[in-house]
Amino acid sequence: MRNSDFDVAVIGGGSGGYAAARTAAAAGLKTVVIEGGREVGGLCILRGCMPTKALLYAGEVLHLAGHAKTWGLKVAKPGFDFAKVMARKDELIKEFADYRAKQLADGRFQFVRANARFLDAHTVELDNGQQVTAKHFVIATGSRVAPVPLPQLAEIGCLTSDEALALEKLPKSLIILGGGAIACEFAQFFARFGVKVTLIQRSEHLLKEFDTDAGQVVETVFRREGVKLFTGTKLLGAERKGRVKTIHFEQAGKAVKVSAEEVLFALGRVPNTAGLALDQAGVATDQGRVVANQFMQTSASHIYTAGDCTGPHEIVHIAIQQGETAIHNLMHPRRQRAMDYRLLISVVFTDPQVAVVGLTEKRAQAEGIPCRAASYPFNDHGKSLIMEAKDGFVKLLADPKTGEILGGACVGPAGGELIHEIVVAMAKRMTVKELAAVPHYHPTLAEIWTYPAEELADL
Fold first, then answer.
1. CATH topology assigned to domain 352-457
2. Helix (H) and strand (E) counts in the chain
3. CATH C-level class of 151-267
């Protein structure tokens, strides 16, 4: 492959990279995908969205079975076979990964299994000794687990989110460091499978990227399910004595320590760009993140990027849009298409689920964006009462002058599904009055949106 001349070389075969490659190939561009990971499929399939949601759903089924008497049902005390729970997850992931591998190797473009590093702006060297040249590149190398913030954490040995998904045996007790989506999803999964979970979060509330009221609902549910929470903390140190691991931290000016059999480090991920030698290609980075403009173009005009390695939102459908946008723009430099994050969706698959699209009250306040907000609780809604799913609420944000819907939040049952009604409404720039006029069947979870819509429409 030495001295090969490709129109596009895509580095990374995950969701963003594959989207770029198939788009380029469909447009007739000579394309190569270079993937150096031990496995093929990308974070979402292998160690992110799909495996975690498979486990969370198993936990939800177990939880419902354990509360069957709520509906007057008699069910023997439910149990589980953890090996079989993990085996089902592995089977699903293998199916998804095998399909992605088949897509990558179906002949539409060349697929090379190797790590790459730039030698110059148009050449990468592979760790198999070959070189690849291309007119354009798309960097889509994803992310990796963030380094631990304290040396002592590395010394005592912490589970990463990747390792937690490969456990063969449940620990009896677990300390989780972090309060974002990854930490919260793992906390509820392990707690529902009988692990004594302690969660330590730096911020004052869980899910700090969302409005405070969303995090507070999750905190209430977690405490009810036996998760011990410490928020507003500062890590001080860690130690290990035999099989017991202890975390030292400060909360409200007081020194606190907690101990457990295992510690899960869930404080996020960082761009996976360290080995690319991007400076050799003139590609600017910011703490490892590939810097790109709204057209997904890097500081080297012929090199584009997509996915978690660039951000600013590490979400699969965003990575796919970025990959497609990158190819469109390298093909059509005079009619480029900008990324639009107005309809950004975020979902946390706890129970209740937390889902947001567009503007939040927190961001509106921080940026001085005028808006009106109205919410309605699930504990006063027919279908959710039937389901005994009383935690949470829905919220709408609207322009105070025009009534256009600017954002929505759903903290409650099937929140990740329900939020899409507001995504569609916002895509068509509907007003709250127009949404309130849309017929909703009764009794359904979806009809709950009409209540905040009606309230805002009447203001």
1. Enolase-like; domain 1 (3.30.390)
2. 14, 23
3. alpha beta
